[in-house]
Amino acid sequence: MALPILVVTIEVRIGEINGSAYISIPQAHLERAMPKILKAQAANNKAKTTSSKVIEKSLSNVKLDCTAILGRATVTMKDIIGIQCGDVIRLDSSQAHEVEFWVGDRLFATGTPGQCGRKVGIKLNKIVANELIAENAA
């Protein structure tokens, strides 16, 4: 009668060469090693959780420069020299156009202008950063 075993297959690629490595572990050895494996796994999960919390706490107070771009305009130097308070600069977008919200030098989201209490704000309609993260992960 054959004893149960665990067969682990590891796919290996070195340069352009693909291969497989096989490891066979008898059930009796697994039963003896299982408490140690579970203990190491629990410690590893705890360390990951702790380090994630430390990183999150460290990053939570970092201040980032953010910019909302209502639109763009091209003006002549003559217009800039003669500009006065009260002048209106025509932008390339309409009021219904989505506003770009940049974090640092990266487009983070788009939204529509609005108000938040007595302050001007942006209602975010699309988080562009999430799409970039998903594309890079694929």
Structure description:
- By secondary structure, the protein is of the alpha+beta class.
- About 35% of the residues lie in helices and about 35% in strands.
- It is built from three helices and six strands, in the order ββαβαβββα.
- The strands form two sheets. A four-stranded antiparallel β-sheet has the order 3-4-5-6. Strands 1-2 form a two-stranded antiparallel ribbon.
- The model has no long low-confidence stretch (mean pLDDT about 85).
CATH domain class of the largest domain: Mainly Beta
Mean pLDDT: 83
What is the CATH homology-level superfamily of the largest domain? Answer: SpoA-like
State the end-to-end distance. Answer: 46 Å
Question: For the report, how would you describe the main beta sheet?
Answer: 4 strands, antiparallel
* H and E order: EEHEHEEEH
| C-alpha Rg (nearest Å) | 29 Å
Oligomerization category of the chains in this entry = single chain
How is the topology of this model organized?
Blueprint: E1 5-14, E2 17-26, H1 27-59, E3 66-69, H2 77-81, E4 99-103, E5 106-116, E6 119-127, H3 128-137
Antiparallel strand pairs: 1-2, 3-4, 4-5, 5-6
